Amino acid sequence: MADVVRQRIVPVSLVRVAGPAAELVSVEQARLHCRVPELSDPDEDARAVGLLARYIAAAREYVEAATGRTFYRTTWRVIIPAAERVALPRATPLRNVASVEWRPDAWSVWQPLTEGTDYALDASTVPGAIECARTSGELRVEYDAGADADAEAESAAVQAVLLMTGALWENREAETVTDRAAVDAAAFRHGLDALIGMLRVA
Q: Quick one: 83 and 66 in the same domain?
């Protein structure tokens, strides 16, 4: 089992550049879970399918953020304070690092760093990390994380996304569905907090 990096440095920003390669839950699975029947009107049915697809994506994003994980292959770009060892957010697992750049302060130009000379990768930890020769200023790192699209997902992760999708579907008429406190409350009512606790990166 990979070692767990327990010391965290709070990122300045984290952006999803591309991905994910797949969703944990299909529209068909969500449809069964939410008990959404096939509608006789094709246009209405297509709208329901589109809404479910958006809720699946939102639910997966919520679970990923709450657990600190990336389930399927995604490209991330993070700006994070430089340190001797930096854990990369959501790098579970870390697949590869496309680029590492450094600047001494927010007003300076980014300078590319070279693997082996300026930094080294450590994909054996959870999340993956880099060891860097620069211990001040900021790093900008672009990297891939998560499993391949054909990899079997953890049952707890699938169930968590289904539960969150169901909570969003049940509250689809509420204006508060995009409010984080309301979403957290819905997640708690559906028992999602226990699953998130199981999946959360320590």
A: no
The size of the chain, in residues, is: 202
CA distances from 87 to 38, 127, 146 (A): 45, 6, 15
Q: Three-state DSSP class for 96? A: strand
SS3 of 191, please?
Answer: coil
Same domain, 50 and 27: yes
Q: Which tokens hold the place of 102?
A: 């450094």
Mean pLDDT (10-residue bins), the chain, 202 residues: 51 90 93 89 89 93 93 96 94 95 95 96 93 95 94 92 90 59 63 86 75
State how many domains the chain has.
2
- Edge-to-edge strand ranges of the sheet holding 111-112: 13-18, 74-81, 138-145, 94-103, 111-112
